[in-house]
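Appendix B. Chain record.
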Amino acid sequence: MLNLSGVTRRYGDTVALKDLNLIVPEDTYMSLLGASGSGKTTLLRLIAGFEEPDAGQLWLDGERLDGKAPHKRDIGFVFQNFALFPHLSVQENVEFGLKHRETAACTDPRELADRAAEALQLVGLDGFGHRGVGEISGGQKQRVALARTLVTEPRIVLLDEPLGALDANLRNRMCDELRAIRERLKVSFLHVTGSETEALTMGDTVAVLSDGKIAQADGSTKLFTRPQNAAAARHLNAWNLLGGTARGGALETPAGSFQLPRTLADGTQGQIALRFDQLGVSDPDSVPGGHSHFTARYVTGEFNGPTALAFFRAPDGALIQVVDHLGEPRLPELTEGRTYALHYAPEDALLFEGAAT
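Structure tokens predicted for this chain:
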């Protein structure tokens, strides 16, 4: 188990990570989701030992990590750009860590070749050892980088946006393969990504990194359906957030007045969260019974294959998104510039305390 406690990392006046706490359990695939510049790579570099925290502690299987050299941590790191040696063959790349590590280095050519072949077979590249790095595809390079990491039998594997350089089709295939490899090895993977879809697809658990802290760490389904705070909801790119002030049992926002799903003291700042796929659209005089609603002007639509997004402008200019699944379409034909009622079941709305950021 990896345990980070009160970890802080500063760069001059900039605080990249602030009093961060995170637990990565044994035998799990955890996704770490965060926006660009949120500190995701910094966090990985602290775990790997490429940087040291300004405060806090890091533990792996009960052993203190901070202050220990990277090559003594038994941690695997798969870089975003793969970091393969172009002058070495695929087999030589995989053998490199075994051959040059400080302790228990493997120098027997036969053992090196056998262990490299086993690692390549594990990632589906049996028979590729003789090839040059320039002779294989991007997806194959990704697998070579993973094999080079796994052959050293690390206690945990860190993956820094490992699918970012791959095309969409290959990315989907590698998602399945990475999960299958991890399950066979029973080693924890910590997979950093800026894609909410990738994070939810890959992770048994998904941790959201926001403002230098973990906003929420939960199972992917629970995180998506019931985020605990506005920061987590915002990073999922599936929730509309409307901020305002509580008064008389409602949240008064520039977009309208919203019934509060729970009690909030008058004058308290809060945000109503409405999920894209839980908003319906109708004429203002045709709102379904029992539904709450507010009005917004239809701007445009965006076709995404199996889904379509409809974009609306609230009276205050806030952009509201509504998703439609083309297999079961539920939205009426929309006219640009026309005002519609956006309605929802009151129990589907979430309320987060605090002002909008």
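Further analysis of this model is presented in Appendix C.
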